[in-house]
């Protein structure tokens, strides 16, 4: 059991967390975004090869609210955001909790470059609000939010740090390993860095880039080597999206993993969505960086394995 | 073979059998890039040789738990390079090489109770109590007038182990030692008393 002293000692982190949550809401509401709430339980979560949903009475706890939020986008809600709990089975480490707080925001009629602008404005706004402008210290590194941010493609970063081009060579196992061990540790010093244009097979729900069909319009935001957000220009072609879902479910079945049903209403709604972009940001990780906390357990009142 | 484990069982302190030898996970980190697969990054230490290496595992990997057992033993005597122990409940005697005893030899005195670790039925090492008491067999008198606090001098203990002790320690004194750090804690008995 966690002693009362230990819980009381978290106060500085929890106070900063509260200020960050307020800051995030203020940023989006003051820019005309509508805060929405969508169900935590769902019969059909987005099929993902490497993200496992937790079961709940025959349904699932959401691993992300993205399908519900894109339903809203397709219905004409142009700028929306949501902040709430999501669940991912088996993810537990210093940077992973099986239950964590995710912030997602979406823009109709935009692509991933608009999301990158949002990220720049959002982190600058937050750092000013929290007194961390223009720089602060995280694990002995001086981080800063002002000045130009780097934007490197996956191809550039892998060629530089891992010595191979994952867009040309199709090796997903090596991709994941080298990303974690060779590439990520270099990204986001001292300003945040975008890692952009993922190989096609890493596209998830992202649109293929028109000017270079070997990559998808997807990026991850890194700061101090830590992945903070994943954004993309949304794939709005119903048939291509269905094909990708079916492929993913097929692979999951082969690997002996749970295969939830296809999200059919979501797929139908894509017919009403022309162009859109959306992003998911890990709030606990952002709090960890902005408070110079050693791990995620420090920035939540109760870590996942603590009983009430 | 020990119980079969999966990658989600991996954590710091877990003991695995790899290529027929017992390993303990001394450092562990769960990683998962973006939409990629889970990676379980481990630093493993061979429980017999002490050699360490890093290895990253994936979700589908399977493992065998190391088949380890602990028994309470009493240290009897040393014969050449072999250390002899006796199981305190079965009275069965077990030998352990000097290499397997390792630094623990500095603290072993007759009748000391230790925990012996067995891998697949063979003894591979011992763990000592955190504190032991040992007699000083040789130490030159402290220099008169040198009363600066923290000043120390060398002393040899009954096991042949040499440590630094405060100047007031004399031959024949019994000292309490911390076996985890190998250092002096306090004097428990003065010579002649």
UniProtKB/TrEMBL annotation, chain A:
Domain Aminoacyl-transfer RNA synthetases class-II family profile: 14-304
Keywords annotated in UniProt: Aminoacyl-tRNA synthetase, ATP-binding, Ligase, Nucleotide-binding
GO cellular component terms, semicolon-separated: cytosol
One GO BP: lysyl-tRNA aminoacylation
This protein's record includes keyword DNA-binding: no
One of the record's GO molecular function terms: tRNA binding
N-terminal signal peptide: none
Domain of life: Bacteria
InterPro entries: Aa-tRNA-synt_II, aa-tRNA-synth_II, aa-tRNA-synth_II/BPL/LPL, EpmA
Protein name (Swiss-Prot/TrEMBL): Lysyl-tRNA synthetase, class 2
Species, as recorded: Desulfacinum hydrothermale DSM 13146
UniProtKB/TrEMBL annotation, chain B:
Every Elongation factor P C-terminal domain range: 132-187
Coarse class of the protein's main subcellular location: cytoplasm
Pathway: Protein biosynthesis; polypeptide chain elongation
Keywords for this protein: Cytoplasm, Elongation factor, Protein biosynthesis
Alphabetized Pfam families for the sequence: EFP, EFP_N, Elong-fact-P_C
Gene3D superfamilies according to UniProt: 2.30.30.30, Nucleic acid-binding proteins (2.40.50.140)
Compartments, as annotated in UniProt: Cytoplasm
Stated family: Belongs to the elongation factor P family.
Cross-referenced PANTHER family: ELONGATION FACTOR P (PTHR30053), ELONGATION FACTOR P (EF-P) FAMILY PROTEIN (PTHR30053:SF12)
Name of the protein this chain belongs to: Elongation factor P
């Amino acid at each position: 059991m966690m002693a009362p002293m230990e819980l009381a000692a978290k106060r500085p982190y929890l106070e900063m967390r509260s200020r960050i949550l307020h800051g995030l809401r203020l940023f989006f509401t003051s820019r005309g975004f509508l805060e929405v709430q969508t169900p935590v339980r769902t019969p059909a979560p987005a099929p993902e090869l490497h993200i496992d949903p937790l079961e709940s009475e025959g349904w699932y706890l959401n691993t992300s609210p993205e399908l519900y939020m894109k339903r809203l986008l397709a219905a004409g809600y142009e700028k929306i955001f949501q902040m709430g709990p999501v669940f991912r089975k088996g993810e537990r480490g210093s940077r992973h909790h099986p239950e964590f707080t995710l912030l997602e925001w979406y823009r109709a009629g935009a692509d991933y470059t608009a999301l990158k602008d949002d990220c720049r404005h959002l982190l600058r706004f937050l750092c000013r609000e929290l007194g961390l402008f223009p720089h602060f210290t995280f694990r002995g590194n001086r981080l800063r939010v002002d000045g130009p941010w780097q934007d490197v493609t996956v191809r550039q970063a892998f060629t530089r740090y891992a010595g191979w081009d994952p867009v040309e060579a199709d090796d997903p196992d090596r991709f994941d390993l080298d990303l974690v061990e060779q590439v990520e540790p270099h990204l986001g010093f001292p300003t945040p860095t975008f890692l952009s244009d993922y190989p096609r097979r890493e596209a998830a729900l992202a649109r293929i880039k028109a000017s270079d069909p070997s990559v998808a319009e997807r990026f991850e935001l890194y700061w101090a080597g830590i992945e903070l957000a994943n954004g993309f220009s949304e794939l709005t072609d119903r048939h291509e999206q269905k094909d990708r879902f079916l492929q993913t479910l097929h692979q999951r079945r082969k690997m002996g993993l749970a295969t939830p049903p296809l999200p059919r209403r979501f797929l139908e709604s894509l017919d009403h969505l022309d162009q859109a972009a959306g992003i998911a940001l890990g709030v606990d990780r952002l709090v960890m960086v902005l408070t110079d906390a050693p791990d995620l357990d420090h920035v939540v009142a109760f870590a996942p394995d603590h009983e009430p | 073979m020990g119980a079969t484990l999966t990658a989600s069982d991996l954590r710091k302190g877990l003991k695995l059998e790899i290529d027929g030898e017992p390993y303990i996970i001394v450092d562990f980190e769960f990683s998962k890039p973006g939409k990629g697969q889970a990676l379980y990054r481990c630093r493993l230490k061979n429980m017999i040789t002490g050699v360490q290496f890093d290895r990253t595992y994936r979700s589908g990997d399977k493992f065998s738990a190391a088949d380890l057992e602990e028994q309470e033993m009493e240290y009897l005597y040393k014969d050449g390079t072999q250390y002899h122990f006796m199981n305190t409940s079965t009275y069965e005697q077990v030998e352990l090489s000097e290499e397997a005893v390792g630094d623990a030899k500095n603290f072993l005195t007759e009748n000391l109770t230790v925990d012996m670790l067995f891998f697949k039925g063979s003894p591979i090492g011992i763990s000592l109590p955190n504190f032991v008491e040992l007699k000083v067999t040789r130490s030159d008198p402290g220099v008169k007038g040198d009363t600066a606090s923290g000043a120390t001098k060398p002393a040899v203990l009954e096991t042949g182990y040499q440590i630094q002790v405060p100047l007031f320690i004399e031959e024949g004194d019994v000292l309490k030692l911390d076996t985890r750090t190998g250092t002096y804690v306090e004097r428990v008995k003065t010579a002649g008393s």
